[in-house]
Specification:
The protein is of the alpha+beta class. It has 5 helices and 10 strands. Helix content is 20%, strand content 42%. The radius of gyration is 16 Å and the shape is globular. The termini are close together.
Length: 172
């Protein structure tokens, strides 16, 4: 399986569907030492005159350390046939299992980063800025902290604003 590099301006996608409903795998690390996790939170847009994706990772997730330690990561999107694999990657820790082996996802390298051969669309991301979400930052009384961060085992997320340095689509 191979990928073809695309111009980001050619993409036709709905970020609310692509991220929120179809999900993505965020993968940090390098070939041979990486971890991936499923994410359904994120934004696509333009900031600081750059095309960016903002993603969120809790510090207790195994992937967090890989993303923290590196400059780059990937956001990979899949067809519906891989929904079970994404569900597995979102409910199991790479500390306890080999997610690729368990799901049948085949690691692939793009621009020195890890994605998976089965991905339909991949963004190679370079971290530009990070910040921690805190309870004091909420300005509404919608009870987002109480409904989202219910215990110490569900810590607040770190946000990563990442420049999209490469866009790749599966080449058949």
């Amino acid at each position: 399986m191979s990928f073809i590099k695309k111009d980001i301006k050619e993409l036709q996608l709905n970020p609310f569907t692509k991220i929120g409903s179809e999900w993505m795998l965020l993968t940090g690390g390098k070939p041979g030492s990486f971890n991936t996790m499923t994410a359904s939170w994120g934004q696509l847009g333009v900031l600081w005159n750059r095309n960016v994706l903002t993603c969120y990772i809790r510090p207790n997730r195994y992937t967090y350390g890989f993303v923290e330690d590196g400059e780059y990561l990937t956001a990979s999107f899949f067809s519906e046939e891989h929904r079970k694999a994404l569900a597995f990657c979102g409910s199991h820790s790479g500390r306890d299992c080999d997610k690729a082996a368990e799901t049948g996802l085949v690691p692939a390298e793009l621009d020195g980063c890890v994605t998976f051969e089965q991905a339909e669309l991949v963004f190679v991301l370079r971290k530009l800025y990070q910040y921690d979400i805190t309870e004091s930052g909420f300005v509404t009384d919608d009870d987002i902290p109480g409904s989202t961060y219910r215990s110490d085992s569900e810590p607040y997320h770190r946000a990563y604003i990442c420049e999209i340095t490469g866009v790749y689509e599966k080449k058949d």
